[in-house]
Amino acid sequence: MKKYTFLSLILVTFSMIKCSIPNATMPKFEKDNQETILTELKSIGNFEKVAINGSVISSGNDITDILVVQLLNGKEINGDKNQMLEIGKQVMKLTINSIENENEYDKFQVVFIQQAKKGMVTKSFSMPIEFTLGDLK
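^ thats the sequence. predicted structure below, dont judge the formating
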């Protein structure tokens, strides 16, 4: 009897957790051109790697869908905030013009990530920049 009660408690807990965590909206690329867009985005700041994902923030009853573009180790990025703002805007405009579901997102975020590895130590710096759809039109 105790075994069944324990299993029931675990199942109920997992079902409640599953129901309470919203799924992130993933970008839907037009005509399967994701690789082409990633290549174009890499060339903007000579980035090592680019990733495009959906993210979600849940606070109480409020759910915020965010389109996130991560840019790793831009060789032409010198840390100037205005330069990063302009490149971020250019990157996000290109990204939203290549997806079909940009209206499903509440915010758009570009994250500049600089990583340096020396031996076994990796130093990392990131700077997120957020936009609204109105900022990008």
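The mean pLDDT is 86.
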